[in-house]
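pasting protein-tyrosine-phosphatase for the record, 425 residues
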Amino acid sequence: MTSILVYVVDEKGKFDTNMTKILPSLYEESRDRITFPIKIQRFLLVQETIPDSGNAVAAIVVSSVALICLVLLAGLLFIMRKRQTRFNYGERCRPVSLDAYSLDSVSAYNSVRRKGVARSSKRSYGNPTFEDSSAIPSHPLNFAGLSSFCNDINAINEEFAGIPQVSAKIDELPAGAEVKNRYANVIPLPETRVLLQKINNDPLTEYINASYVRGPKNATKYYIACQAPMESTVTDFWRMIWEQQSKVIIMLTDLVENGVEKCTEYIPPSEITDCRRLYGDFQVTLKKRETKEKYAISTLHLNNLEKNTFREVYHIWYLWPVNGVQSDGAGLIAVLLEARALQRGGPGPIVVHCSPGTGRTGTLIALDLGIRQYEITRTVDVPRVVYTIRRDRAGAVKTKEQYAFIYKALNLYATKLAGGVLEST
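structre below
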């Protein structure tokens, strides 16, 4: 169908609006034939199209979806470009050493509290590709802040989830060392692994599942965190105690828990009837045992039979609950104060172990570092303390319950210190 558009012009050839409007009515009202002179100036044939409503709707929907996709794609490209700029390791990151961040000199005004999901370190201690210092978790608290925050379990759990994990690789161990590990997935980082003196040039004789951990003011080799001795590694354990000149051992596990062996017996059970044990070139003699409410202190003589000399070693055995954590931190605080007094003058690291040497061990070391930090600065930075320990002993502080316990025990210590019940030593 073709439409013809007609319009009327006056004598001068100009468009006449009124005549154009009344033209149709002239045909209807007149009974006679009317003849008009017609002059065709120009014409345009317009093809009428009847739109398909269904196709129109479909076209609109497709166009809308395409537009939304384009907007989302543009947003995604923008975010990826922004992240690429932020984490361009080749241009922006630099090697980070925690030695520059003393645990005992933290400024509350320069801290950065990390929030969000947990991230894992791509490498262990001293990783040059790890993020810059601003990403190190930090949340320093004074007495008032500690008292308030220790009761906010959700915030504590969120903070714990944001502390990066550090892990070692099994291929970084000496060949054959896996038989000396109590747990296949708990291995020391090569940078902080304790090395025993090599025997007969055998590299396997220098391996023990133990790690040096930094102490107050980043003092190197202040602690040794290690797995519980196995029957095949008890001699290595006492060799480490001798070679490292350690004076205090803190044990945080029972020999058997829930029917599973957690630690081989490595000290004599009685100072009267069965007071001696022989492990290779070392004889261990129990001289005295003092039993307290939640722990026992044993005085041992460690005899090096090859050198015909002995040293005095103190063994503190704390009965950690089989499941979960303690109801309060008083017992563990007492253990730390005992260890501090016994360690005075000792040249070697304090040795701490549970069964794997990570969860309970890391919790005790974190509590000790937090207490020492608080005594000096009256502030404590728990996430930074825990992360520092993990950089030395992978897997330290395993559960959110252990992490919350650190806060609870620190608050108890700070409260007693403020009330004059305790004295900084």
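The mean pLDDT is 82.
The chain has two domains: 1-49, 141-419.
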